[in-house]
Amino acid sequence: QVQLVESGGGLVQAGGSLRLSCAAYGSIFSINAMGWYRQAPGKQRELVATITNSGTTNYAFSVKGRFTISRDNAKNTVSLQMNSLKPEDTAVYYCKADSYYRISPYWGQGTQVTVSS
User: Fold this and answer.
1) Helix %, strand %, coil % for the chain, to 5?
2) Is 86 helix (H, G, I), strand (E, B) or coil?
3) Which residues contact 22 (CB under 8 A, 6 or more apart)?
4) If you ran DSSP here, which 8-state letter would residue 117 be given?
């Protein structure tokens, strides 16, 4: 089992920055890719950014150039630096970890990000 604990959400004005962090605990040897997803009210959960064990990254078009995902395998953490935030970035952000040994991924509890205009 893997537990994911997110931190760093909050309220920020448009144009501001926030940094989200996610720490993994438990069977961390089983983790493959990690990433961040978000869900706004009334909308489906969507991919924000992912990063593999080797550091290959993937971003949603809407956040490219503004968000940066990074990973510290030694500390079992993944972070999301969010710059130039927009009101449409407002959502609950979830950390996700894929496992080599099971089909369903692990999810964190989510952290709220609110961007005011």
Assistant:
1) 10, 55, 35
2) coil
3) 4, 5, 6, 7, 34, 36, 77, 78, 79, 95, 108
4) -
Q: Tens of pLDDT along 75-106? A: 999 999 999 999 999 999 999 999 999 999 99
d(C-alpha 12, C-alpha 87), whole Å:
9
Distance separating alpha carbons of residues 3 and 22, to the nearest angstrom: 10
Q: What is the DSSP secondary structure assignment for residue 43, as one 8-state letter?
A: S
pLDDT by residue, tens only, the chain of 117 residues: 999 999 999 999 999 999 999 999 998 888 899 999 999 999 999 999 999 989 999 999 999 999 999 999 899 999 999 999 999 999 999 999 999 999 999 999 999 999 999
What's the rounded Cα separation, in Å, for the pair 112 and 60?
19
